Amino acid sequence: xxxxxxxxxxxxxxxxxxxxxxxxxxxxxxGELVPEGRAMRLQTASDxxxxxxxxxxxxxxxxxxxxxxxHENQSYD
Length: 77
What we know:
Low-confidence stretches: none
GO molecular function: DNA binding
Largest sheet: none
Number of strands: 0
Order of helices and strands: HHHHH
Shape: globular
Protein name: Transcriptional regulator
Organism: Candidatus Pantoea gossypiicola
InterPro entries: Lambda_DNA-bd_dom_sf
Structural class: mainly alpha
CATH architecture: Orthogonal Bundle
Helix content: 40-55%
Distance between the termini: 30 Å
CATH superfamily: lambda repressor-like DNA-binding domains
């Protein structure tokens, strides 16, 4: 589940944090994907509009291991 999709669905970071059961500062630490442990909770909170797909997390992790993804704060120099 992509963070941008969850944010778009809930409309604000505060509402997203509340639905995910976390404090607002936690949302700022999320990367491209909602943490896997929170994705199912958001699927339930969105009545299935947002979908937790374990394959998405598996492919993202594989791409990271193979160097296809860089950490958001990594320099490209």
